[in-house]
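User: Please fill in residues for this 188-position structure.
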């Protein structure tokens, strides 16, 4: 698959940054951007004891969001270097500087390794465990759908992974359609 043009990448990043209309009105950004702010505050050294604003649960949520989008984007079995670079760029751009491209690239490399080692079903279960709130689960479907557009739109294989995520999230199958409709509206 080819990587989308710069205008589409910008639209995807902007849409990832904004809260979904279906979310509560008090959210300052999408769950991706809010969780990224905490993830980016992670201390560089494990032994750091000064207050950092770091919340391990929010960091785990950020990783689960990126992993969900990654497993969807990699569903067709091909996520080449240029697609991974575009994916990392769009996620970093959407995070507004809270997480840089190098951090996203490193995370994606780890996620690729986890997917190879554990398999798709185990990774989907791990994502579902990390995401407790139903509204976050819904938004993750939208975020994964948006990032699937970076590599040419939502393919049938990617949709099947979205459906598997919805099942693991204990959501109705129609929620995938709701999320993808939101994606179409955002990119129109």
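Assistant: Residues filled in for all 188 positions:
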């Amino acid at each position: 698959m080819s990587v989308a043009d710069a205008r589409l990448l910008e639209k995807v990043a902007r849409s990832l940054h904004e809260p979904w209309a279906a979310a509560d009105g008090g959210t300052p950004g999408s769950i991706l951007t809010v969780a990224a702010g905490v993830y980016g505050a992670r201390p560089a050294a494990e032994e750091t004891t000064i207050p950092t604003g770091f919340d391990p649960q929010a960091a785990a949520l950020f990783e689960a969001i990126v992993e969900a989008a990654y497993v969807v984007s990699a569903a067709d079995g091909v996520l080449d270097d240029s697609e991974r670079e575009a994916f990392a760029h769009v996620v970093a751009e959407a995070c507004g500087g809270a997480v840089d491209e190098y951090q996203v690239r490193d995370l994606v490399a780890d996620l690729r390794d986890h997917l190879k080692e554990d398999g798709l079903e185990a990774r989907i279960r791990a994502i579902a465990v990390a995401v407790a709130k139903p509204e976050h689960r819904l938004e993750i479907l939208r975020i994964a759908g948006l990032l699937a557009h970076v590599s040419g739109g939502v393919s049938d294989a990617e949709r099947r992974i979205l459906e598997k995520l919805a099942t693991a999230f204990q959501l109705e199958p129609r929620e995938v359609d709701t999320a993808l409709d939101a994606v179409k509206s955002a990119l129109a």
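For context: The chain has a mean pLDDT of 82.
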